[in-house]
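Hello,

Our lab assistant flagged a job as stuck in the queue for most of the afternoon. It eventually completed. Since we weren't sure the result was trustworthy after the delay, we are filing this so someone can double-check. Below is the sequence as submitted and the structure that was eventually returned. Let us know if re-running is recommended.
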Amino acid sequence: MITEMLMCAALIAAPACAATSMDAKDWKGHEPSLYTGEHYHPKWAGVRKCIMHRESRDNYRARSTISTASGAYQFLDSQWRVSLTYMMIRESRSTADGLISEIRALRNYPIQEWNRYFQDRAFYTAWDNGRGADHWNLTRHGC
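-- returned structure --
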């Protein structure tokens, strides 16, 4: 967890590791997940890559023109922003990773402004080892 916190802190220049200030190279393109916490498992890396590409063409700053869906995984911001933070805080409490205040701060930012670490963490948290697969239309995506 300390490694994740250091990565998170290094990702952005903002005082808290909450959201903004990603360099252009940090918001577009598929790379291995920065999140490797409680909900992460390497067997889901291919599914994550497929969903990310189909939903946003690997763009963490993507925004839908027809809904509030945003970010690399196209979470509906109007429905998911607070829910995702509650789920991530639950993990932070159980692992004592020290990120609770940063996660709470995410509620003040649209999902497409969250940095790579937190968007990846949100994906794996919602994916929940495959139990959350119905949040994405995997048949349509071919994932």
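-- support follow-up --
The delay was a queue issue, not a problem with the job. The result is valid. The mean pLDDT is 85. The chain has seven helices and two strands.
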